[in-house]
Design goal:
Length: 242
C-alpha cells in the first residue's frame, strides 16, 4: 500500500481540531488521507511494489458499473408508435435494453455490451397483386443520446405475397434471431451516462380486400395490417476497463 504521512498530531487534553483530523482521514493532497489514498489515488508511483490483490479487496459489482440481469418478459411493438422517417429522433428505447448509471471517476475505456432475442412480422406494402418493398424495421445503439452508426441493423421480411388470389407465405418462425453487440467507448468523464438500444419501424400502409363469401350476397371487407416487432430476453452492461 502507499506510504501515508499524517499532518495532524493529537495531544492529550488539547482542543480537537476537527478539520485537521478530517484532512488526515480524507484529503485531496496525495499521500495524506488514510481513506482517500487507497480510494482512487493509488498508481505505480505510490503503490508498494510487493502489494498483491487479495479476496477481501474485491467488492461485488465493482467491475460492472452498470448491468441488466435480463428480462424474460415479452414486449410487442407496432409501427403506429413511430414517426414517418428513420431519423434518430424516431428511434424508441426498448425497455430492458436501456440503462443509466453514474461513474465516480474518469475512464479511458468502457466496454458496452447488449443482447436480445427478437422476431418480426414484416411484410410487403400494397396488395397481393401490386406489392411494393416492405417498410424497414431497424435497431440501433445509442450512448448518451448519440447514435452509433456501426450498430444499425435491419430485420428480415417475414411475410411474402404469392399471388392475387392466395394468402401470403409466413416465415416469422424461421427468422427469429438473437442479436448481440458491443462498443468500446473511450475517454468517458465521471458522471452520468446512458446506454440504450432503440427501435424504428417504418410506416406501413397495407390494406387487403376480401370477399365475405359466407353471406348470401358476397361483400368486400377491407383489412388494415401493421408490422410487429417482438422482443424477448434482453440485457445490457457497461464495464469500465481503464
Amino acid at each position: 500500500m502507499a506510504a501515508i504521512v499524517r499532518n495532524y498530531t493529537l495531544f492529550d487534553l488539547a482542543i480537537l481540531n476537527t478539520a485537521g483530523l478530517n484532512s488526515d482521514v480524507y484529503s485531496p493532497v496525495a499521500a495524506r488521507g488514510i481513506y482517500s489514498e487507497p480510494n482512487g489515488q493509488l498508481d505505480a508511483a505510490n503503490l508498494d511494489a510487493t502489494f498483491q490483490v487479495e479476496a477481501q479487496h474485491i467488492i461485488q459489482g465493482e467491475a460492472a458499473r452498470a448491468y441488466g440481469a435480463g428480462s424474460k418478459t415479452t414486449l410487442d411493438f407496432v409501427n403506429q408508435a413511430f414517426g414517418t422517417d428513420d431519423n434518430s429522433d424516431n428511434f424508441k428505447p426498448i425497455p430492458g435494453l436501456a440503462v443509466r448509471f453514474k461513474m465516480p471517476y474518469d475512464c479511458t475505456a468502457v466496454l458496452f455490451t447488449w443482447e436480445f432475442f427478437f422476431s418480426v412480422w414484416r411484410h410487403y406494402e400494397g396488395t397481393y397483386a401490386a406489392q411494393t418493398a416492405a417498410p424497414i424495421i431497424q435497431t440501433k445503439a445509442f450512448i448518451n443520446g448519440v447514435a452509433l452508426a456501426h450498430t444499425l441493423a435491419g430485420c428480415p421480411e417475414t411475410v411474402f405475397g404469392i399471388g392475387p388470389a392466395q394468402a401470403g407465405v409466413k416465415k416469422e418462425h424461421l427468422n427469429a434471431a438473437c442479436r448481440s453487440g458491443s462498443h468500446l467507448a473511450s475517454n468517458l468523464a465521471a458522471g452520468w451516462h446512458e446506454l440504450s438500444i432503440r427501435l424504428y419501424m417504418g410506416d406501413q400502409h397495407m390494406a387487403e380486400d376480401f370477399e365475405v363469401i359466407s353471406l348470401p350476397d358476397p361483400l368486400d371487407a377491407s383489412v388494415e395490417t401493421s408490422h410487429r416487432f417482438t422482443c424477448g430476453f434482453r440485457n445490457v452492461s457497461a464495464v469500465p476497463l481503464l
